[in-house]
Write a structure and sequence with these properties.
The complex is a heterodimer. In chain A, strands 1-2 form a two-stranded antiparallel sheet. Chain A has eleven helices and two strands, in the order H-H-H-H-E-E-H-H-H-H-H-H-H. Chain A has one domain. In chain A, helix 1 packs parallel to helix 5 and helix 10 crosses helix 11. By secondary structure, chain B is an all-alpha fold. The chains are: A mainly alpha, B mainly alpha. At the A-B interface, helix 4, helix 9 and helix 11 of A face helix 4, helix 5, helix 12 and helix 14 of B.
């Protein structure tokens, strides 16, 4: 029984780390533009698919991975510069439709450039499972966790210590005030999209040896990432990480202990319950509306 | 010219289109496409009351379409309730479900409401997929055609007239709701909740009311979709992409205008039919069209075109 619980915890944390990274990218874009980006999961798909196909062409996996992250980053750059920056006057709903359109577009591109089959990548340290308290854990799980930890740490340092990071923080607080003190909003927002997409692409590449990838893998990832970001509290990077991990654990334990067919249901049920009790998310702070 | 209010103009145009389409396009294919437009138009009108008038987001409205669709599938097959009563049953269940979940989730704002409704839609789709002994699972189930006055309603033409008639009725009712005190209260909430509250609008009650109404519209659309199709699957009724389609219909058409919702629906239903010529490029073009519409016509297709015509006239 204990081994089962450890097993669920391990898979929950692994999947949760992926959700956390998607949610983190989501939060970064939300903070800089107040856009809920439903193409976030498709950045992950694009990174993973590019890596798979470049690696299949004979390029070393590490180089292929870097190209994959670059491909995702380019998609992020284009999403802002070629689409969202032109739709500044759109309603919240219009922007949701816009990013869903972008997600469908990316899916369409992947379907043509790549193919419609499932693909995997070789795990970094093989597939020989590691035994922990009678539970078997894939080495790639540790790669995912380590990768997620490094990205979260790097992002925290970046936003706290660098001028560009502080610029993103300033814009998320008040865009007009940020413009007035001389922050180049367009450049910083573009950068936020690029970083966010690169994080998404990395998440996709890290997860592929475990979860596989395909041209339409992005939709569910976007929804889970969005859900995780909201569960934690929109706009809070810490909330995104916590939300992602909680979502992954709820899914793993609900799926393992109660019913695997309703795995996704537990995640969304948990969100409904949490939001009913705490409308601002787990760590979000309550915003009082000024008149 | 005062006689030609948008309400009368829209209903009159709708009656003309419904009456003349079978004369002009005498093919079952076109009638079936038009039936789809009428069915989803009904759901879009309901959703527009919620999103365009009250300003509340729903990313899970297909959940109610699913409830309506499976009500007319399950009730006759498993419970022995005839199809027509099943429509009412489905609408009742949808209203009850909307009432139960509406209370807690309508307190949420913006993207929080979006994720809560998204979760609701997901739960319905999962239930329909997994309770295979009732619903037939992911492959779906066939829906028995109902008998009205001793005749079994099954032909494309019969469903064309029924759905067209229901859409006209639904449009008239929606216009009445929009111009009632509820409609005015909803617009006040949309513009500023605090201002509406200050002048004495019961915000929670009005949001709740329109949420239930929009759920009933979606449920009726689901029932009609199921009955006219004869076969339903969880994805084709309650799936996330259905919710996205409904959202797109309302936003593309133009928020807060009932006539726009019907035209938005026509665009979203016709687009995939037209795009089949692109074969593999279908997704790519669909995504591109969605993005371009929002960028070039942020207020919606209909309001933008209307403004352009007016601008030329003066």
């Amino acid at each position: 029984m204990l081994s089962d619980l450890v097993q669920y915890a391990a898979s929950g944390v692994t999947v949760g780390a992926i959700y956390a990274l998607i949610a983190l990218g989501f939060t970064l874009i939300y903070n800089s533009t107040h856009v809920a980006n439903f193409a976030q999961g498709d950045f992950a798909m694009l990174g993973a698919m590019t890596t798979v196909f470049v690696a299949a062409a004979g390029v070393p996996v590490v180089a292929a991975g870097i190209l994959g992250i670059l491909a995702a980053a380019c998609a992020g750059l284009l999403l802002y510069r070629a689409a969202i920056s032109f739709a500044k006057n759109s309603s919240v709903l219009g922007l949701i439709v816009l990013t869903i359109g972008a997600a469908i577009f990316l899916k369409g591109v992947a379907q043509i450039v790549f193919d419609k089959r499932f693909h995997s990548l070789p795990a970094w340290f093989g597939t020989e499972p590691i035994k922990v308290l009678d539970a078997t854990i894939q080495p790639q799980s540790f790669v995912v966790l380590a990768g997620a930890a490094v990205i979260v740490f790097a992002l925290v340092v970046f936003t706290k210590k660098t001028l560009i990071g502080k610029g993103i923080l300033a814009i998320s607080q008040n865009q007009l005030a940020a413009t007035l003190v001389g922050i180049n909003v367009t450049t910083i927002v573009t950068l936020a999209f690029v970083i966010s997409a690169a994080i998404g692409g990395t998440a996709g590449i890290l997860a592929t040896p475990i979860t596989l990838t395909s041209y339409d893998a992005g939709t569910l990832l976007s929804l889970k990432g969005f859900a995780a970001a909201m569960l934690g509290g929109m706009g809070s990077p810490m909330g995104a990480v916590i939300g992602g991990l909680v979502l992954g654990l709820v899914e793993a334990f609900g799926g393992g202990l109660i019913s695997s067919a309703y795995k996704d249901a537990f995640a969304f049920l948990a969100i409904l319950v949490v939001l009913a009790l705490r409308p601002q998310g787990l760590v979000g702070s309550f915003v009082r509306e000024r008149v | 010219m005062k006689f030609l209010t948008p309400r009368i103009l829209t209903v009159a145009l709708l009656v003309i289109v419904v009456a003349l389409t079978p004369v002009v396009l005498q093919s079952n294919y076109y009638l079936r496409v038009m039936t789809l437009i009428y069915v989803f138009g009904l759901a879009a009108i309901g959703l527009n009351l919620l999103m365009g008038f009250a300003g509340q987001v729903s990313l899970g409205h297909a959940g109610f379409v699913g409830i309506g669709a499976y009500a007319v599938g399950i009730a006759p097959t498993h419970l022995g309730i005839p199809g027509l009563y099943a429509i009412v049953l489905g609408a009742g269940v949808s209203a009850a479900v909307a009432a139960i979940i509406g209370k807690p989730i309508l307190k949420l704002r913006g993207h929080y409401l979006a994720v809560a409704t998204l979760g609701f839609g997901f739960l319905v789709a999962l239930l329909l997929t997994n309770e295979a002994s009732w619903t037939g699972g992911p492959d779906g189930m066939s829906v028995p055609r109902p008998v009205i006055f001793g005749t079994r309603i099954r032909t494309v033409e019969q469903w064309y007239w029924i759905t067209g008639g229901v859409l006209i009725l639904g449009t008239i009712i929606a216009y009445n709701i929009a111009s009632s005190s509820t409609g005015r209260a909803l617009r006040a909430i949309h513009d500023s909740e605090i201002a509406a509250h200050t002048v004495g609008v019961d915000i929670a009650k009005q949001k709740f009311k329109v949420f239930v109404i929009s759920a009933v519209y979606a449920s009726l659309a689901g029932s009609l979709l199921a009955l006219s199709n004869g076969h339903i699957t969880p994805d084709s009724t309650a799936g996330f992409l259905r919710s996205v389609e409904l959202l797109t219909m309302v936003v593309l058409g133009g928020l807060g205008s009932i006539a726009s919702s019907i035209l938005g629906t026509a665009v979203v239903v016709l687009l995939p039919q037209v795009l089949t010529v692109f074969h593999e490029y279908e997704h790519l073009v669909l995504g591109l069209v969605m993005m371009l519409c929002i960028i070039l016509m942020p207020a919606g297709v209909v309001p933008t075109i209307l403004r352009r015509i007016k601008g030329r006239a003066t």
